[in-house]
DNA sequence: ACGCTTAGCGACCCATGATTGAATAACTTG
DNA sequence: CAAGTTATTCAATCATGGGTCGCTAAGCGT
């Protein structure tokens, strides 16, 4: 995170506004679906008019793209950070899953998957695939490592297991509501534990 | 399945057409997303004009509703049937998951979840919730039964476990492509086995 | 063959929402 | 302060797509 000291320059001010637009759009896109959010709505949320947005984004699709990139970057960053902690592979994978869930349950990240479809339709589907693969391989690699360091069962099929694990954690993003009774952090912990339980090595 | 013998009556003919419309629409809605499918496209697929569709459905939302109901009925029927087979609870739950996956990977069922959002927005959200709950409870009940008949571990948290299991199987519907290399039936079997592995009782 | 009903077609109507451009307010710089 | 630059707004423009209406033609019972 880059902190600002002193007054923001014009450039910074501009970039702050742009990011605020993206954050707000991501939230709405996630809540209501890309196609159901008129630019008007985003503009109103921010207290400006629709036309003003065009100073910062070149089109609605461009805005979608930016939402996706920002979101996915956050996700990947969270996962990478958790991956590089210390401990057994199992402990690290658990940390990765928790970080993943924590990120996905933030209000402007919810339903991130829900706008992968428009992304694939209007944008570059290789970007989507690349990011999805990156997450998939992070999980697989840790599973393989864990079979070596004996924190996981030795007989896992990493490809299959990563599908099941990712399914479980992504599903959280579908039903979780930030205004619900569950706290995100303890939920993340429970789900992560649950999803990995069957793979742990038990002597 | 009800078979027809002899010539279809006018009523039957009409109903066949209506169902064909729904099937076709479900496929397109799933592939491209409800909001991205003009009625014109569905009409073209069927070789008629948009206006003709209005003989069979009262609005685009009505069509969505019918798609959802038909799809969910199929899903629930498949699950109920599998639930009532014989064997241990673990075996039955495995059968349920397989049936679930098999159903969800059919081409006009793919991305069924992808139009729950429009359903919730334009339709009756209680219907959606009710069906989701039904599936959830089917899984939970079998888990509980399995703890009793010792086909599952005795220390499962059924609520949490059902989330993980449903996540895993629903995720299949997101990435599976009918034209891909995997056969749906063996995939269903593998995923079902994988998702349950950690819960099985191992003496 | 004659009217009646129904399916389907083509041409419309109309609201929505993305995008643009001219006009204006605000701010910077010399 | 005046000229120039930037941020916003307001008022079009334009395409899309849901929904409607009147017409034709085929099917059917009498």
What's a concise summary of this model?
The structure is a homodimer of 203-residue chains. Chain A is mainly alpha-helical.
Would you write up a description of this structure?
Chains A, B: GO terms for molecular function: DNA-binding transcription factor activity; transcription cis-regulatory region binding. Chains A, B: It comes from Sulfitobacter undariae. Chains A, B: Pfam families: TetR_C_24, TetR_N. Chains A, B: Residues 15-75 form the HTH tetR-type domain. Chains A, B: Keywords: DNA-binding, Repressor, Transcription, Transcription regulation. The structure is a homodimer of 203-residue chains. With 203 residues, chain A is mostly helical. Chain A folds into two domains: 10-57, Orthogonal Bundle (Arc Repressor Mutant, subunit A); 61-197, Orthogonal Bundle (Tetracycline Repressor, domain 2), CATH 1.10.357.10. Helix content of chain A is 68%, strand content 0%. Chain A is built from nine helices and no strands. Chain A has helices at 10-32, 39-46, 50-53, 60-83, 89-104, 116-122, 125-148, 158-175, 184-197. The longest helix of chain A is centred in the middle third of the chain and has 24 residues, at 60-83. Chain A is elongated and about 65 Å long. The N and C termini of chain A lie far apart (42 Å). The model of chain A has no long low-confidence stretch (mean pLDDT 90). The interface between A and B is medium-sized, with 31 and 31 residues. Chain A binds a DNA duplex (30 and 30 nucleotides) through helix 3.
